[in-house]
Amino acid sequence: MRLTVPTILTLLRMLMIPVLVLVFYLPFKWANFAAAALFAFASLTDWADGWIARRYNQYSNFGAFLDPVADKLMVAVALMLIVQAHPTVWMALWAAVIIGREIAVSALREWMAEVGQRSKVKVATLGKLKTVVQMVALVMLLYQEDLLGLPVFVVGEWLLAGAALLTLWSGFEYLRAAWPSLKEDVK
């Protein structure tokens, strides 16, 4: 197995997860800024590893496996930190929707690969839009404080709600694409 630049970026993103948790709980005034910056950087590495892999044909099976795992872990940990810091019904609901959809779609993709239909549930434009809205929301929610008169946390809450709705919509689209295979009886 050779380590490509995209795979190294993915591994770096995974290593940032415990650092994010540590930074989030630091008892310093700047900890929220550092946590938001760290998450933003991790989000950019997610974009960069995909771009580099496509641009320079640096695909690997290990990287293809690891990339979505790193993304889902980073998002789930950020959501848990935010819900723990702001335990409201809505925040918990949006987090549960996002994490639940990620688990369901991952299981759906795995099952579709088992039956040779993986291409029916590949990442679509709607899923990419959901990811962008979700990442921006999480950066804002980790930052928490108003910036230049903008209520960053409130905007982040609304964006997270939008990301949760996009999550449901894209999850439904994946399910709809897979439905013909799902409704068949096993022989």
UniProtKB/TrEMBL annotation:
Cellular component terms (Gene Ontology): cytoplasm; membrane
NCBIfam families xrefs: pgsA
Family of this protein: Belongs to the CDP-alcohol phosphatidyltransferase class-I family.
Lineage of source species: Bacteria, Pseudomonadati, Pseudomonadota, Gammaproteobacteria, Lysobacterales
Listed EC numbers: 2.7.8.5
Name this polypeptide is given: CDP-diacylglycerol--glycerol-3-phosphate 3-phosphatidyltransferase
InterPro entries membership: CDP-alcohol_PTase-I (IPR050324), CDP-OH_P_trans (IPR000462), CDP-OH_PTrfase_TM_dom (IPR043130), CDP_ALCOHOL_P_TRANSF_CS (IPR048254), Phosphatidylglycerol_P_synth (IPR004570)
A GO MF label: small molecule binding
Pfam families named among the record's database cross-references: CDP-OH_P_transf (PF01066)
Entry's localization field: Membrane
Coiled-coil regions listed in the entry: none
GO biological process: glycerophospholipid biosynthetic process; regulation of developmental process
The protein's annotated pathway: Phospholipid metabolism; phosphatidylglycerol biosynthesis; phosphatidylglycerol from CDP-diacylglycerol: step 1/2
Alphabetic keyword roster: Lipid biosynthesis, Lipid metabolism, Membrane, Phospholipid biosynthesis, Phospholipid metabolism, Transferase, Transmembrane, Transmembrane helix
Membrane-spanning residues: 6-26, 33-53, 73-100, 149-169
Organism: Lysobacter defluvii IMMIB APB-9 = DSM 18482
Major location category of this protein: membrane
Catalyzed chemical reaction(s): a CDP-1,2-diacyl-sn-glycerol + sn-glycerol 3-phosphate = a 1,2-diacyl-sn-glycero-3-phospho-(1'-sn-glycero-3'-phosphate) + CMP + H(+)
Cofactor field: Mn(2+)
Membrane topology listed for this record: Multi-pass membrane protein
